[in-house]
Amino acid sequence: MVDWKAVGKRTKKFVIDNFLPLSFLVAIIWALAWPAPGKAVINVTIMDGEIHVIQEINIILVFFISGLVLKTDDLAAAIKHKLGVTYGLISILFVTPCLGFALREIPLNPPEFSAGLALFAAVPTTLGVGVSLVRSCGGNEGLALLLTVASNIAGIFTMPLWLKALLGGSDELESVSVDIPNLLARLTITILVPSVLGKLLRELPPFSKHVKKLTASYKTAISMFSVIMLSMIVWQSLSGAQATLMDQQFVQILYVILLAIAQHIIYLIFNFAVLYYIFHMPLTDLIATGIMSSQKSAPVAVTVISYLTTDISKQGLLIIPGIVGQISQIFIGSALARYFAPKVKKMKAAAASRQQAEAADDDNGAAKPDIELTSKSAKSLTSTEADLEAGASTPLTPPSEPAEAAAADVAAPASEAAPAGDAVTAR
């Protein structure tokens, strides 16, 4: 008989553990199969169609929640890992975006696919997925969190420059405009400001106590709500681009999928090779820095795309590489967790054994002088007993002439002690 209760529990756990890719999958299928609702939602605009109201609300809520649930208790401790922090930020913000120059030259059709891959290379690391993967692998979670916070704040200022270098002046992307001041202002308003407000609400009285309790009690529900907001952005963009997407050759979409996977694998190989062979980084720091330096954030990519063009069809095409890239990062990260987690567990067990052995050696060292003292005392006692036995069994003789004075001192005690000597002999 089927235990439906157990099946329900397993299903619930699977859905929660894989809520992000499942939500993306639902958004994609819904947008392609029935685009009308998504089109209706995304067409709610203000400022002559420049701002899509619902989409903007979704973006602001995603980053407000990220600030609201952000725990910074471990950040101070993570700062001491200077090599991991320095390398991670340089790799995320300045090294990995360079791959975008190669990706944009790949002759995909339509060119928005190549542009989407290049754009995905320019965004900072993932907001929450990367930290979760580092935790699953047994890496330094505090370091991963610090790289997430620092790179996403700094990325607001580096992304416009990279996007200008990667996409600016492209004849094939006429509707894509990289206006650095405008992009910087909008990223600040929709990413930085909501994140800071959420964090302030978490830390400042009188709300901090209630906010921390709320986010702890409903951690899973809040995380799932954030994912739903992100999926709504994807759903709206793909719904608007449904007709254009359905006209594309399947082989071109397959190329995008393979290239997005290859992009992440290249990042992983490069970062782990540098960290392991050149910097010889400790395992837990290696895991955190390597994974976070190789991740790219789909939510940030989607946000940026919504500001680069108001053409909904273009948005849908540009967004595909980021969605595929995020999903590939999750599944590849799961494989890394199965590889690294046992190694970290084994390393920690070995370290614990060494500590126990060292503690035992210290205890033995402290007890050694007492043992030596006891040994010496035993030897002294044995020697004394031997002397007493020898004295008791040796007959008293008249002292010789040279020792007459000394014998006079010994003779009286010896004669007085004779009964005791007899008693000892009898005993």
From TrEMBL:
Pfam families: SBF_like
Sorted UniProt keywords: Membrane, Transmembrane, Transmembrane helix
Transmembrane segments: 14-33, 53-71, 83-103, 115-134, 143-163, 183-201, 221-238, 250-279, 286-307, 319-341
Transmembrane helix recorded as keyword: yes
Entry-linked InterPro entries: Na+/solute_symporter_sf, Put_Na-Bile_cotransptr
Taxonomic superkingdom: Eukaryota
Biased composition (Low complexity): 372-385, 402-427
Coiled-coil residues: none
Cellular-component GO terms for this entry: chloroplast envelope
PANTHER family registered for this protein in UniProt: SODIUM BILE ACID SYMPORTER FAMILY, SOLUTE CARRIER FAMILY 10 MEMBER 7
Record's protein name: Uncharacterized protein
Source organism (scientific name): Chlorella variabilis
